[in-house]
Amino acid sequence: MYLKINKNSYDIVLANNFYKRLTGLIGKTNIDYGMLFPKCNSIHTYFMKENIDVIGLDENNEVIYKYENLPKNKVIKINNERKKTNILELPANSSKKIKIGTILIIEED
Fold it and tell me: What pLDDT band is residue 7 in, cutting at 50, 70 and 90?
């Protein structure tokens, strides 16, 4: 899977099992890809090595929340409806041109 943002393209890893959801981007450096957490409404950045961008998506992949350059050791909760929310983690400062209300198209390879 991948996401195009302007001229940049980011591979997207689907956090679709317990291990991927548990570890996410913890301990990673030089992050150049994203992770999509389906049916998720909160994340933390404990044990992260780098800052990240966090985007909350509704069931139609419309951006409902955005946090750029989220530092380490933070907890973010997007909304109370976990089944209708997905979270996309991206490299720090990669989502500058994404606005609330934008519908993201995550394409299959």
Answer: confident
